[in-house]
Amino acid sequence: MLKTILFAAATVFPIFSLIVIGVFLRRSGAIGKEFIASGSRVVFNLALPAMVFSKMLQLDHIPDTMPGVLLLFAAVTAAVYITVWAASSRLPVPIHGSFVQGAFRGNISIIGIAVAENAFGLEALQNVVVTLMVMMPLYNILAIIVLSRSSIDAEKSPLRQVGLNIIKNPIIWAIALGLPFGLLHIKLPGIITMTFDYLSRLAMPLALISIGGSLTFTGLVKRKGLWMTAAAIKLLVLPLLVWIGAVIFNITGDARSALIVAAACPAAVSSFAMAQAMGADSELSGEIVSATTLLSVITITFWIVLLMR
Question: What's the total number of domains in the chain?
Answer without folding.
Answer: 1
